[in-house]
Amino acid sequence: MKLVATLNLLSEIETLIHLGVSVLLLDSDILTTRTTHPQTKEFIEQAINIVHTLGKEVYINLNTMLHESDIPVAKEYLLFLKRVKVDGIVIFDWTYYPLAKVLNIHPLIIYRPGTLTTNLYDPRFYEQLGIKGMTVAREITLESIVAITEIPQKIELSMVGHGYMPMFYSKRPLITSYLREKNIDIIDHLGNPKLSIRESNRQTISYPIYEDAFGTHIMREKKLESFNEVLVLRPFLSDFFIERFLISDNEYYDAIRAYNDERLIPNFRTHYQKEYDSGFFYKQTNLRNEVKL
Length: 293
Known about the structure:
This protein is an alpha/beta fold and 293 residues long.
C-alpha cells in the first residue's frame, strides 16, 4: 500500500518522501477545487521531473465537475498531462474518462467520486473500462470496505482515509449570496480557509465552509483518522490518500509519520484526537434512527 500525500511546495518534496510518501498528489490551478495551493503547469512539470528522478510517482487531482464549456479546457489539460508523463489522474467527474480515452491515457485514471463506489460490482465494472484504479466510497462501513477490497482485483483499489471529508457541495456561491442578502460587505472570503457555519439547532457544532471559483463546500465537523483501520486494510489497498485541505503542515507531517510507524499513533492522538473521529467505519448511513442496530 502506497501513501499518497498532497504536495504544496517544491521544497518539501524530499521531506515528504523521507516521511514515507510514495506518491505526491498535485492540485491544478484550473481543474481542482478545495485547494489552498493550486499549481501551475510549470510547477507540475518541474515537480514531476524531480519526483521521477527520486523514484517516486505523481498523481494529478482533477476533482471538478465538467460542463460543456469546460470540455476544451479539459482536453487541453489532459494533453499536457500526457506530455509530462504523469503517473495517475484522479478524477471526480466521469466526463474526464471519454476525453482521456480519445488520447489513450485512460489507463492512468483513478476514479474517486466520493460516495458512488459502494459495492462488490463496481471494481469489476471499472476494470472492464481499462482504468488504473477506483477509490472506495468514504461513507460505507469498515466491514463493507473489507468485503469489497479483499477480493483479488486487477484494478487498483484505494481509499481516502485521513483528513476533512466533504459532506455538501454546491456550484452556487453560497457565502457571497448570503452576504448580499444580509447587506453585509462582501469581505475577501474566496479561498478563506478559516470560515465555519452552524445550524440553528446545533449551536455547539461548527462545520468548515469554503467558497472558491467552483462553488461552496461544507466539510464534516471532525476530521477522519484511520490508524486502526489501515492495519486491517493495508494488504488490500494500492493507495491510501491522506487529505491535506485545511490541515496545518505540522499536523499533516505528524499524521504521515504515524501511518508509517504505529508507535507514533498515541502521540498523534494525544495532540490532535479531539479534532478527529472514525467517520462512518462503524455506523451505517442508510438506516433511519429508529431501525439502526
